[in-house]
């Protein structure tokens, strides 16, 4: 369980979405902890270990050592591990993935003329509103996204938990783009729960009410909000696929952190010596 001081330390130094404890809790229902600069989450016999230290730079070897110490202490049956490097030891791997986080320096960012013109065109058809109210419209668009995209079970779960995330988090802002009839053309979710970073969390568009350039318009509004709140950077999230990667690069987003995900089973076999020590000590 996190203390008030630990929550403040995390808020001050978070730089990836998985450092946002409300976000991870809503998805996993796992309780957050902080140890040796690392955030990890526990639920029943499952461990989620975030191998990106908040402040101090640690070696891959030290990160794995702290991971192993955490496993020995809490003895989970499964582990989800993310870091800027892949695990070097062999485990019963269930799933692996590689990607990059994209970052945008918004302290001196200037939109290019092409994006500016796209935004102007979108503004003729939609208006932007900011709030934290999840509605049936949003849920229907989330369901549409899940049905029309080839996504794995883990990603599907994340999208299904979006309403819980919006309702729980105190640092989330929901950006809606509504057409002249009041229909949602697209919406995005940004999280401002860090001193230096804003986080571009989700962007979902309507097929029925789609307006060209609407995602550019919303991201521009998210950046404006981030600047007003004194943020210096925006974490644009992972590349995911070529289309999303193109969009982030179009906005001058640059890969700034490698992402390696490993989900594996673990078995706790105790040696005869350890067994007797445990009994007689």
Features:
11 strands, 281 residues, globular, disordered C terminus, 2 domains, 10 helices, alpha+beta, eleven-stranded mixed sheet, 37% helix, Aminopeptidase
Describe the 3D structure.
It is a single chain. The protein has 281 residues and is of the alpha+beta class. It has 2 domains: 4-98 and 259-280; 103-257, 3-Layer(aba) Sandwich (Aminopeptidase). It has 10 helices and 11 strands. The protein has helices at residues 4-13, 21-28, 60-74, 113-123, 136-148, 153-160, 162-168, 214-228, 242-250, 272-280; strands at 31-35, 38-43, 46-50, 78-83, 92-105, 126-131, 172-179, 184-191, 197-205, 233-238, 254-265. An 11-stranded mixed beta sheet has the order 1-2-3-4-11-5-10-9-8-7-6, with helices on both faces. Helix 2 (21-28) crosses helix 7 (162-168) and helix 4 crosses helix 8 (214-228). The radius of gyration is 21 Å and the shape is globular. Residues 270-281 have low confidence and may be disordered.
Radius of gyration: 21 Å
SSE class: alpha+beta
The 3D shape can be described as: globular
CATH class bucket of the largest domain: Alpha Beta
In total, the number of strands is 11
Average pLDDT number: 92
Individual helix count = 10
Unreliable spans are 270-281
The level of helicity is 25-40%
CATH topology of the largest domain: Aminopeptidase
